[in-house]
Amino acid sequence: MKRPLKSPRTAVMRKDIKPVHIIGGGLAGSEAAWQCAEMGVPVILHEMRPTRQTEAHQTQYLAELVCSNSFRSDDKYYNAVGVLHEEMRLCGSLIMREGDKAAVPAGGALAVDRDLFSQGVTDALKDHPLITIEREEIKGLPPEEWDSVIIATGPLTSPELAQAVQKLGGEDQLAFFDAIAPIVHKDSINFDTAWFQSRYDKEGPAGTGSDYINCPMNKEQYLAFITALLEAEKTEFKEWEKNTPYFEGCMPIEVMASRGVETLRYGPMKPVGLTNPNVPEGESGRCHAVVQLRQDNALGTLYNMVGFQTKMKYAAQIEVFRTIPGLEQAEFARLGGIHRNTFINSPKLLDDTLRMKVQPRLRFAGQITGCEGYVESASVGLMTGRFAAAERLGLDVQTPADTTAMGSLLSHITGGGNVDTFQPMNINFGLFPPYELDADEKRGLKGKERGRAKKKLMAVRALNDIQKWSLTPLKRAA
Fold first, then answer.
1. What is the value of pTM for the model shown?
2. Based on CB atoms within 10 Å of each CB, which residue in 204, 259, 263, 324 is the most buried?
3. Model confidence over 284-298: pLDDT tens digits?
4. Which CATH number is associated with domain 9-173+344-477?
């Protein structure tokens, strides 16, 4: 695949190009700012931290990762997330560039050292000649003289701005809770019990096939753990929060446990593809359940508990998680937490270039649009930034084909999703247009082999189509 053309920064010096204002310096806002500037359009990026902190952020860096450190699968042929990764790389994504530079071992996934990643994004934006960063909170709708605005305030939009958007859209603001997984110091893990192995020994972009720490459970231990989860003291919600639904893709571990005793064994604690090497000779290495931990920093000193988002109180977390074999003496760099997340009813409120129908000067990007996941949010920021830049340069705003990962996600949040039941969505092959194998493509394939072949053909088609879209606005701008 060809990489994108070097962007035409000669347009930078044109004094008749007004800046695009971007509110929010998360992954989506950072990517939108980069794409705008790389097309030669000045950007003013408004980030309220540290003037006003949020319940989840801990640093002043742009694009801070507040939940997992994983960008998920990096398989560009057989996983829709991996396809999205590669599409973004082909479009000159800042988020993917810095993610690749900060990668840590994670099997078939792309995981990053969160501090190196966020600092890399921050430095790149600060050093760009067309980007000005303003540390300030935008309360309410932006001034009328800002005629091109991207709102990328993410899951923790300030209340004043959220209320203004809600009033403008005439819609009740949808909301749900997003939970954070704990992080453990590696040197406090007992490796007489735990062991390193990726599921099915799969290697990834920065891995070896032995990238996860695995803590095994037999049936008795697993059942006791489920009981402890259900009985542990939980965070009490405020009255206004009590009817807020969870997003299915980031469900607290104890909420999953409440759905049935076997739920976790078929979810984050599934034992498949793993064999415990620490059992006595002659005994089976198969486990009833497994807790996995994934490297969280480049030094390999911190590991996060995969899928263990929680709303348990801190003392309860320590007590319950130390019952896990291998974590009896675990020391936690960060305990789990929970925060409120918000998003708009995008299929009803936004047009196909992410402009608000009732006020087209406003575009939206990232999780506030109802996409879910780091790379999904950043990809919507990438598209929004290019749309706004093209509009500023007097070009026709072209959307990516719906055969691409970005195009299919855009289609879902701007019309493909059901207005009455709209919920956040991760990228998946189900959002792509149907693909039917022809006779030649089916020949010699059976069952799952056909499904795998179909995914690869869809991926190849997507990468070819996104490359055409990625280069067009840059050529025309030049």
1. 0.81
2. 324
3. 788 999 999 999 878
4. 3.50.50.60
